[in-house]
């Protein structure tokens, strides 16, 4: 009500989901000259009773003169509460896959989908790849929710500008890889065998060069290829090579180890 204070008494209609909606709230808004519509939980105080089992397509209306409660059986139960819609059905503009006839829905459902559909869809898309985790710190959950929302907004703008049909999950993975490449952080040494493939190797330009000669071997100086020694993609082997990446100070076979060691892992 604090958030709505500047907008009350102007004839607006508020659309909310079942987290907020209740007969008490909707009645209070109605007295303040503001309509309301939204999904509702049947266990809210003041909600009427409905049949527990209904066939698909069936609808039941309950009204008290100021509010209309609706239970409509679609793929699952759909429960609505509204103070601005009549108890009527309307065509959705789509055909029923089973009967081939125009599909009808309660008027409040159609209006809700039109006004609130984008919010519900955004919540649904984010829920599949939600990065939030259980935490006793409320601000952590808020931060990750805002982060998810920002990434979804970026995805929407990217699709609009590029017209590229990239799945949201693939977009997030690509975004993470590009952020790692742009802002790498060195790993703390914990002992053991060092990691061969690290994002730090992508920060510079990599070109093959000859291994510097030593007094013992001269121009025939060779070193063990690091990828061949530590790779997890194929059988490991001890292989000598005359080539190296001078910026990484790492010996690598020209092909395919040089590409695997410097580029392909995060490309």
Automatic annotation (TrEMBL):
InterPro entries attached here? Answer: PGBD, PGBD4_Znf_C
Q: Where is the PiggyBac transposable element-derived protein domain?
A: 1-154
PiggyBac transposable element-derived protein 4 C-terminal zinc-finger domain location, by residue? 217-259
Give the top-rank taxon of the lineage listed in the UniProt record for this protein: Eukaryota
The protein's name is: PiggyBac transposable element-derived protein 4
Q: Which organism is it from?
A: Synaphobranchus kaupii
């Amino acid at each position: 009500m604090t958030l709505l204070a500047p907008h009350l008494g102007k004839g607006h209609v508020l659309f909310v989901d079942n987290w907020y909606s209740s007969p008490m709230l909707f009645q209070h808004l109605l007295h303040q000259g503001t309509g309301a519509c939204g999904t509702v939980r049947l266990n809210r105080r003041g909600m009427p009773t409905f049949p527990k089992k209904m066939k698909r397509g069936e609808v039941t209306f309950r009204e008290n003169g100021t509010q209309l409660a609706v239970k409509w059986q679609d793929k699952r139960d759909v429960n609505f509460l509204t103070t601005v819609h009549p108890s009527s059905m309307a065509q959705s503009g789509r055909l029923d896959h089973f009967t081939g006839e125009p599909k009808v829905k309660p008027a409040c459902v159609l209006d809700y989908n039109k006004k609130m559909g984008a919010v519900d869809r955004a919540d649904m898309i984010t829920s599949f790849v939600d990065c939030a985790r259980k935490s006793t710190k409320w601000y952590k959950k808020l931060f990750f929710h805002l982060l998810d929302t920002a990434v979804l907004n970026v995805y929407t703008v990217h699709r609009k500008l590029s017209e590229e049909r990239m799945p949201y999950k693939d977009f997030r993975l690509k975004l993470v890889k590009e952020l790692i490449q742009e802002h790498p952080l060195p790993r703390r040494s914990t002992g053991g065998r060092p990691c061969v493939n690290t994002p730090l190797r992508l920060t510079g330009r990599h070109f093959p060069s000859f291994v510097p000669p030593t007094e013992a071997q001269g121009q025939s100086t060779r070193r063990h290829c690091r990828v061949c020694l530590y790779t997890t993609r194929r059988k490991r082997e001890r292989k000598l090579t005359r080539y190296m990446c001078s910026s990484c100070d790492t010996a690598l076979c020209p092909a395919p180890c040089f590409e695997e060691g410097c580029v392909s892992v995060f490309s």
